[in-house]
Structure formats: structure tokens, C-alpha cells
Write a structure and sequence with these properties.
The chain is of the alpha/beta class and 461 residues long. It contains 15 helices and 23 strands. Helices cover 41% and strands 20% of the residues.
């Protein structure tokens, strides 16, 4: 069911939504069309001037009410996230909490500074720079963190006077779209300010990505789709913000605390079964500690439990058969054929894929060169620090981690890595919505998100 111009709109055609762990049907979603997208964009365009004209405290009050209605359904949303995404309870709690936190942050940001007093060009003159809304934002979100990644764009977008058309991923349309529409409706947001169009990527997603009525498209997803969107937008000079995938690195220097590094590696590579854009896809380890690191990593990974998230396991199912087959048949098996060795894992039952440690991984293998998006930890041995840095910097990435007992050395190595965000002696999957996200990440991110840099991203001067 769509939410357009303040009303829930039934669709002519629908498709099932399945619980990932059991395969049971838990709902249906609308198969939106280009016409549905047109109506939503038109509604957002009509509503935008009035929304922008509200006082900042009024918009902040709407965002607070939006958050309050989501919070009133907190336990329900956590369980729905577990069913619809397949994530364990801790992941679902983090995701829903981060979405609520983003709304709270944006409500405060709405009342902050919206311009600057500039040095005058001539004596006796006053020069001002004022931030104004972009206008109508199209937002296409992925299935891995549907609440948090939607709110990361929706909340600041609304706070600064923009109106929204959201297209949630077809694998998570209820938690990622419909419940947000229900909360916005209950909060009394004016008609047209927040719209949701459900549907598949090739139909509704393509229509929104190509729509000339948008002032900005925000897309989070695969590098392939993001590249196609960027090329299409460039032809018409349409602005886009992209957060795409990458092959993130986890660097273990020879003076690292190996047990700490291995424990953090499980978080960095296996949060939500490794299905995140910031998952560590490459473990680059200095030779003197390689054997100890592999032993610790294998021991810890083999001890993890996999199953239904409601059974208190460590890892849930992968999101779909297509994703499982990609991990196994495109990443793991071809890498093994080229010489990688399975230390543990590389087996599955349905969508439940065992955490997998691969050793002897080299740059010519898919497990090194490609984003994995699954519970696989490929280990590559480097002879020197320089070689390790070269192995990291040769591939697109978002975030990295570096482990060393010498903090200054770890920071020095971090400064040489071409990633937007690097963590020293910590897993780069730990940090929340209030932290600044990178604006430079080797072609994987166009734009800056979170914290004090929200304002220039969602406004123009």
C-alpha cells in the first residue's frame, strides 16, 4: 500500500513479503508504477512551499511526534525487523534505536543556524548567506537497515524544509516504508510532505531515480545500480547523493593484540551476516602474526551459532536465495578454485550460511577484490606494512580498521589509507547515527551524512 498526499492508496497488484528465517508470508506490498511515482512527486511538490514556510520549531515538533509514534511501537518494530530482514535481536534494536536517534538529532538541527554573516564586499554593505531547502527529495533505501538508512535521509531532509518521496526496498517494504508512513500519518504531517511508494526496483525504483521532478535523489545500494543512476543523472545535470558498496579492509599489524583483533573482526565482518556496506571484506595481516590471527579467527567463527533470530543465535539467515548463491557461487567457490583454503564454514542450509574463514586469499580472487555481502572473512598475508597499505588502497572502500598496540603507529597507518573513515583498535561497525559519515571514499560515496554536516547536504545557498 502506498502513502501519497496524506492518504494510504491501495495498489492494483501486490506481491508477498516473507519472513526470512521461515519463509512464511507476513504481508504483501504494492507493485508501484511510474504513475504512482508521478503522483507522489506531484504531491510533494505542492506541499513543499508550505512545509518550508513553517517555523523551524514547528517542523521540529512534527519530527518529535513522528519519533514518538515510532517509539510507541518499539517492541513491535524490533520483532518486525527481525522477521523481515533476518537480523538478530541486537541488530534490530540497534537499527530501530538509530532511526529514532536520527529523528531526535534532526529535530534539534531544524532549530539551529541556517546561514552565515559574510565579510562585506564593500564598506557599508551587509552580506548574508542563507540556507534554503533543496525542494523535493527522492530517497531509495536498501534492505539491510531499512529504518536507520531511511531516517538518515528522511529526518534531516524534513528538518530543513524539504518534502520526501521514499521508495523502500522490495525485500523489506513494511519495516522500511509502511510503518514509517503510518507514524508520519499519526504524527499529523501535512499531506504531501512525506510520501511512500512501494514497488520493485526496475519499475518504481527506476521511475523515481529518473524522475525530472526531483531536486535531489538519495540512493543507497549497489555500485552497479548507483553507477547507472549517476550516469543517467549526469546527462540532465540532476543532483544525486550516493552511498554504494566497497571492499573494506581490516588491517592487523605485527604488534597487534591478536585476540582483540579477532574479536573485533567478527563484529566488523559478521554484523547482520556481513550484509552491510561497511563490512570488512579483506583481512590484511602482517606475516609475523598471520598464523596466530587465523587460529583465533577460526576458533571464534566456528563457535558462532546460526539460525532463526528468535532462537537467540549469533547470526540469522541471509536475505534471499539470490544473495546466498552470490556469496557461495560467485565469491567462495571461485576463490577456493584459485587456491584459497577454507579454515571453517563454506556450508549452508537454506538461507543459513555458516561464518566462513578463507586463508591464502590473493588479490586475483573474488573474495579479495569484490564486495562480499555475506559472512565470509578472507585473510591475505602481507610481508610489510608498505605492502599492506598498497593492498588496502588499490580497491574502492568506505571504512577500514587498523590494529596495533602502538596507538601512534596505528594512527599513522590510518592516515595513509584512502577511506572516508578509519578506526584504530576497534571494529568499524560499532558507531551510531550521531557520528559524521565520510564525504570521500574512493568513488563509493558522493555526499556527507550525519552530525553537523547535515545542513549543507540538504539545503542550497
Amino acid at each position: 500500500m502506498h502513502y501519497i498526499d496524506g492518504a494510504f492508496v491501495p495498489a492494483v497488484e501486490t506481491a508477498p513479503v516473507h519472513e526470512k528465517a521461515t519463509g512464511a508470508e507476513i504481508g504483501r506490498y504494492a507493485l508501484g508504477t511510474a504513475a504512482d511515482v508521478d503522483r507522489a512527486v506531484a504531491a510533494a511538490r505542492r506541499a513543499q512551499p508550505g512545509w518550508a514556510a513553517l517555523g523551524a520549531p514547528e517542523r521540529a515538533a512534527y519530527l518529535t511526534a513522528f519519533a514518538d509514534h515510532l517509539r510507541s511501537r518499539y517492541d513491535e518494530l524490533v520483532e518486525l525487523s527481525m522477521r523481515e530482514t533476518g537480523g538478530v535481536r541486537a541488530k534490530a534494536v540497534d537499527e530501530v534505536s538509530a532511526g529514532l536517534k536520527q529523528l531526535a538529532i534532526s529535530a534539534v538541527e531544524a532549530c539551529g543556524t541556517a546561514g552565515d554573516v559574510l565579510q562585506p564586499y564593500k564598506a557599508g554593505k551587509l552580506s548574508l548567506s542563507r540556507a534554503v531547502p533543496l525542494g523535493v527529495l527522492g530517497i531509495i533505501t536498501p534492505w539491510n537497515y531499512p529504518v536507520n538508512l531511511a531516517m538518515r535521509a528522511v529526518a534531516p531532509g524534513l528538518a530543513f524544509g524539504n518534502t520526501i518521496v521514499l521508495k523502500p526496498a522490495e525485500l523489506t517494504p513494511i519495516i522500511g516504508g509502511r510503518v514509517l508512513a503510518e507514524a508520519a500519518d499519526a504524527a499529523g504531517l501535512p499531506p504531501g510532505v512525506f510520501n511512500v511508494v512501494e514497488g520493485d526496483g526496475p519499475e518504481a525504483g527506476h521511475a523515481l531515480a529518473e524522475h525530472r521532478g526531483l531536486d535531489l535523489l538519495d540512493f543507497t545500494g549497489s555500485r552497479e545500480v548507483g553507477t547507472a543512476i549517476a550516469l543517467s543523472a549526469a546527462r540532465d545535470l540532476r543532483p544525486v547523493r550516493l552511498e554504494l558498496g566497497g571492499s573494506n579492509a581490516f588491517v592487523v599489524l605485527e604488534d597487534a593484540d591478536v585476540e582483540l583483533a579477532a574479536s573485533c573482526a567478527l563484529i566488523a565482518s559478521l554484523e547482520f551476516q556481513g550484509q552491510t556496506c561497511i563490512s570488512a571484506s579483506r583481512h590484511i595481516v602482517l606475516e609475523p602474526v598471520a598464523d596466530a590471527y587465523v587460529a583465533a579467527l577460526t576458533r571464534k567463527a566456528a563457535a558462532l551459532t546460526v539460525g532463526n533470530p528468535f532462537d537467540g543465535v549469533d547470526l540469522g539467515p541471509l536475505i534471499s536465495e539470490a544473495q546466498r548463491d552470490r556469496v557461495h557461487e560467485r565469491i567462495v567457490l571461485p576463490s577456493v578454485e584459485k587456491g584459497a583454503v577454507v579454515a571453517t564454514g563454506a556450508t549452508y542450509d537454506g538461507l543459513f550460511y555458516r561464518p566462513t574463514v578463507l586463508t591464502g586469499v590473493t588479490p586475483d580472487m573474488p573474495a579479495f577484490a569484490e564486495e562480499i555481502f555475506g559472512p565470509v572473512l578472507p585473510v591475505t598475508v602481507a610481508a610489510t606494512e608498505e605492502e599492506a597499505i598498497g593492498l588496502v588502497n588499490g580497491y574502492p572502500m568506505l571504512m577500514n580498521s587498523v590494529f596495533s598496540r602502538d596507538l601512534m603507529r596505528g594512527m599513522a597507518v590510518a592516515e595513509r589509507l584512502n577511506a572516508g573513515e578509519v578506526h584504530v583498535n576497534d571494529a568499524h561497525a560499532r558507531h551510531g547515527a550521531e557520528n559524521q559519515m565520510p564525504g570521500f571514499t574512493r568513488r563509493q560515496w558522493i555526499g556527507v551524512q550525519r552530525g553537523p554536516l547535515d545542513l549543507p547536504e540538504w539545503t542550497r545557498r
